[in-house]
Amino acid sequence: MFKKNLNLVIITGFSGAGKTQALQSLEDLGFFCVDNLPPSLIEKFVELCSQSQGKINKAAVVCDLRGGEFFSSLNQALQDLDKVGFHYEILFLEASNEVLVKRYKESRRRHPVSPLGNILEGILMERKYLAELRGNAHKIIDSTDLTAAQMRNKIRELFGENYDPARMNVSVVSFGYKYGIPLDADNIIDVRFLNNPFYIEELKLLNGKDQAVKDYVLNNDVTKKFLEKFLKFLEFTLPYYIKEGKSHLVVGIGCTGGQHRSVAIAEKTAEFLREKNYFCTVSHRDV
Predict the structure, then answer these.
(1) 269 annotated as ligand-binding
(2) Would the annotation count 14 as a binding residue?
(3) Where would I find the RapZ-like N-terminal domain in this sequence (predicted)?
(4) Main-chain phi, psi angles of 176, to 5 degrees
(5) Annotation-wise, does 17 bind a ligand?
(6) Which of 12, 111, 158, 271 would bridge 122 by S-S if both were Cys, CB 3.0 to 4.6 A apart?
(7) In whole angstroms, what is the distance from residue 73 CA to residue 69 CA?
(8) Which one of 149, 165, 181 terminates a domain?
(9) Same domain, 139 and 189
(10) 13 is in an annotated binding site
């Protein structure tokens, strides 16, 4: 009999994207962790954890392409858990092609999908194979620009002391379009239509966390109308994301450079969500 209050995190994603590091970070948070578990053994693993007499309440496993016959057996394992109503979360790790190639060259390891071919070929094949699984993931981490310390902080943010798989966790991320869109964002909001403080001499060197920039951005009539509609949109959609089983949502808010408008709007959005009792974190990628 499966213990329904066992929190299980299944870590998967691209080879070289940081799955092992994520697992180690979860272990530091008190999760019972197993690396490279064959998908066909997930159900047995859950059974054993459930028989631990309360000693194991949080567990995490890494399942990836090193396991050989991966896709069909993983899908079957997840379907089996769904049939008995056991709740689990899929944490998907990804990174850009360029960064994955660089990491493999530095490690001098072969890519599991293309052991005899070139690294990029393997990455592209893996990206194609994992597309459906990524779409079913509950949480996604893009490790492209993350240091080891930032990865640990990200895992702590998602699975630390406030971790509750039944509660919606919203990450609001401001960014600059000139540096690219965050790969792990579920919703992207473009606020480049708002007046830009960059062209105001006394505001140019400040950012959206400074009061003068906040006042300039937020007190504008267009901004007020936009926020009214945007925040109502979030308030309407979040309960439906929760209903569909999504426990983590990443909202990306972008302006040109990621310094002024997006930062001020992101801070205001996080403030609103916390008032609505959502667990919300805010980060400013390009400040």
Answers:
(1) no
(2) yes
(3) 7-162
(4) -110, 130
(5) yes
(6) 111
(7) 7
(8) 165
(9) no
(10) yes
